[in-house]
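Quick start: read one record
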Amino acid sequence: MARWSAEHPWRAIALWVVFVAVCFIGGNMAGTVEASNSDQAIGESGRAEVIVDEGHFDNPARESVLITPLSGALDRSAADKAAADVATAMKALPEVASVSDPLPSHDGGALLVRVTMSGDPETAQDRVGKLRDATAGVQRAHPGLRVEETGGESIGQAMDDTLGKDFQRAEFLSLPVTFAILIVAFGALIAAGVPVLLALSSVAAALGLSTLASHLVPSTDTTASVILLIGMAVGVDYSLFYLRREREERAKGRKHLDAVEIAAETSGHAVVVSGVAVTIAMAGLFLAGDVVFSSLAVGSILVVLVSVIGSLTVLPALLSKLGRWIDRPRVPVLWRLTRPRAEGEGQSKVWSFILRPALRRPVATLAISVLALLALAAPALSMRLSFPGMEDLPRTTPAMQAYDRLVKAYPSNGTVHTVAVRVPAGQLDATKAALTELAKAAAADPLFAPLDEAPDVEVSADGKVAVLDVATPFAGRSEQAKESLDKLREVMVPQTVGKVPGVKAGSDAAVGGFVGADVDYADHVKHKLPLVVGFVLVLTFLVMAFTFRSVVVAVTSIALNLLSAGASYGLVVLIFQGTWAEGILGFTSMDAVVSWLPLFLFVVLFGLSMDYHVFVVSRIREAVKQGMPTREAVAHGITGSAGVVTSAAIVMVAVFSIFATLSTIDMKQLGVGLAAAILLDATIIRAVVLPSLMTLLGNANWWAPRFMRPREAPRPPAPVIEGELVGAGR
């Protein structure tokens, strides 16, 4: 493939451009199929969502205007005037359907006006600005009071603005940072630009293909972000591996096409194996039985496969067409430091010094490094899983500050359990009575919030679904909130709604909401994680064993990747389940790890770590085949690949670290986890554990059963001349 592409560069480049354009344009024309609530239903909370969806409720967008004193007690007459002004201002807006009467808090310290918006709830966030302007006008007219607005639409708009700026900053920084690191790695602008170009084109093609694939596996909001993240990582990596080897072969005196072909046979082969390993790791996500993970798997697999194809087709074509222009324009100082030399890149004195302990004292080095990584992984044993809640959102926006004051004055507006019931035929009145009884029983229990008004049982237009919200005054991730969920599911619902003829608690009557989804999803991940891990380990073992024709290499590859993944888990727990790093990274500890992170982090790390491992072990095996002793081959392979692997690792660590600067806790944890794992893998694993282990094993590294060993071609018999074997006795 590479030879043909190099000999027909314009055809290969044109075909790649057409391929990317067709994928991107065709995907956009086909449109994206978004995952529905029923697609994402997990556990009892998922069943509750499905029941609510079956009711086809008209759920208009609602906002809350809270009136509180700036200090001291609330002046009720002044608050009533402000509430009347709020009602007048809101009713004049076409975006408002209705305004409630003012509702005083239990302690008389606040007044609440609820506003129901008109129009499509999906677009309410775009129109809520008019309501906020009206609230601001009332605030100006009543400077002695605090008049503020909050609600799902206000908070959503504020968070979109915050997160939008975050991601814009991340996107703005990631490309320049990547390009700058590649300039340092290559010392030439065109050489630095080629990997970025391949990565971006691969991402564009994969985005288009993912929209087509969404008609089979529905897409989620995070799919595009993951395609960008994985695509930039592997696209730059694969180009780096290929480009550095091609430059090295040219420096040895190879002709241009021969250098491209050798790079394809060596680095190109490593890219294919790595791509297969990453694909297998990502395919493990399908076993999670979760449309979110399935969507991420589809996007990741597509961008990896497209990147592999690009590295074997358009990349050789570009190298062939550019020729020695790939090394122009040169950055003077950097070029002298990074230019390829005829003797290869295996003469690094720095890396020779780093490898010395592993090569001279492999047993001690291996024991110390493995114990250090295990100690780093130990905190993962105490990992707790949870969803980020309202309490984890940044409090820098007025909408979130108003929300905190609203929940303090009216606890029923905070954490809410949703009880959803399929009403049996002829049992509507009995169901409503049971739900009302449930609401009153909960209001009398300290685990639940007192009622601000009469219980509101919503019934669908066809009378087949009834829904009741039961609030708890505790934060969504608190033990009290989980205790209230257990009491609802195990005691209160069975004793009330469960006694209605034809209603079975847990299926026909289900409890959902944030707390339920949090608990159910954490249980789901804990149940599925061993299955996904087992699948990834077994298939990765088979790929590595048959690629390197060695059982030992396959086992050590898996063991080393597990070590780096475990150490990464431990670091995430150490940082985010404690409070010591809050000031450094700018977060408030949620005393837990985001529920979806361990599963996703494992497959991504296992896949990306294989990039380096396959490339380094390929260089070591290549040296062994050339007749080097194992110790020398290990030194040659690691020092020879040091430049490209270090550059690739720095790119990934830099990009992932940018995610650690985002506002949301889940993105911070993802960024820190990925950056830490790649850093550990490219330093301790590659420079200490791998060389000491392979040096210690020696020739045993390449052991395999007879059926796996490569077949050697039969040697032709020596020609006979005048009855003697040519060369006999010599």
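The chain has 23 helices and 13 strands.
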